[in-house]
Request: fold
Amino acid sequence: MTRLWLMPIIVMTLLALPSLNANGTEETLRLTTTTSTYETGLLDYILPPFEKKHNAKVHIVSVGTGKAIHIAMNGDADVILVHAREAEDKFVQDGYGVNRRDVMYNDFIIMGPKSDPAGIASVRDAASALRLIYEQKRTFVSRGDNSGTHQRELKLWKQTDLTPSGAWYLEAGQGMSATLRMADEKNAYVLIDRATYLANMNNVRLVKLLEGDPLLVNPYGIITVSPYRHKHVKYELAMALVAWLTSPECQKMIAEYKKMGQQLYYPNADKTDM
Amino acid sequence: MDYITNGFREAIRIIFSLDKEFMDIVMVSIMVAGTSTLLATVAGVPFGILVSEKKFTGRQIVLTLLNTLMAMPTVVVGLMVYSFLSRRGPLGSLGLLYTRTAMVIGQFILAFPIIAGLTVSCMRGLDRRAKMTALTLGANSAQAFRVFLYEARFGIFAAVVAGFGRVFAEVGVSMMLGGNIRTYTRSITTAIALETSKGEFALAIALGIVLLTVALGINILFTLCQKRIR
Reply:
């Protein structure tokens, strides 16, 4: 008797298990990408035509660039969309990725409190601004997660020959939006990509203080995970996604994607340097 | 303050309009937590009964282990399972990382010790006289054991409910093993974390309300079970 009532439960479980991961007949493609491209809503805007055309579902895992690359190195992703050129090149050179293509770019800016206690609004270049923040020990929130934005920040610090540390330098270890929110709560300075800035400018108190330094250009690239390194990756579907993101049609969609009436990303696949 | 009241108003609208994204997220949570609880019940209840009824060497160790695992941090489970399921790990060829199955595995590990452990304590707290009475009334030992199990039904149910409560509300395992993929592995808790970091509170609040309601329901069920035991 006691076993009898267990039977339906076991049967139900066995029936439920296969359906657990069922997502229709669609093929799935796993894309690891930065927090910014996902949280600004760009991917939700440009991926549906691709999914429809290929009867596929793109599973987006949005993490920082460093982690996105790491997941792909382990073979847990099919394709990556990231923004840290040096790390990207190393990824390809080490044989983990193939066919890197430019997709788009925007730029980084530095935001801070309206009162600008470090006075960075008066300088033109990012390195000088960081130097001012360092000298006056004004609170600065760093991504601290090896993301593309974090890697760029470290590169800028290198330019200043200063090593940031101390109670004023906070390493958040979180995504771009979460880091911005932390900086906002602490009335601190923060390096941020323009897309995330535009998507959030109305719900934070911090303001844009510095922009336009050529060192702040922020290019995004897409790379297919090498089928030689990881045999199980969906190479063809991944290449189809690369083809879609770099196609004139999708590039036009990227250019048209706006928040607060402003363009977030500038497509540049046609100027590609494979 | 405005954004909180606006968030609540919008949250209520999301709940009552059965917003597609909202429903997707709730369904993922129910499906994954439901499956893992079901599996943990099928494995944990018999295991708990066995541990409480059979005398064997190392039983105390098993009990201590169960009690320790009950409080296991979710991120530790996430880390362990992640390292096994990653393509670089020993079970990598299964390709399970960032799937619902991976979430179920992690949550199973969370729920099993709770369900098994609480089953043990419930069996131990039972009045042995029911079994004795059955025996004196001429039941054989299997029949007597069934009477005993029947006595335990509310306690076991409470154990299952507690297990479900734990996995339904956890975020570490879901985030690390599921990857927060929209409509696929985005559960209530991971969605709340994402929406809050985006500064969009409405959906987060709506999901929070669901989570609280479920927690309340679970507590009521739990209390009712406790009452029936007494």
In short: The mean pLDDT of chain B is 91. The radius of gyration of chain B is 21 Å. The first helix of chain B runs from residue 2 to 16.
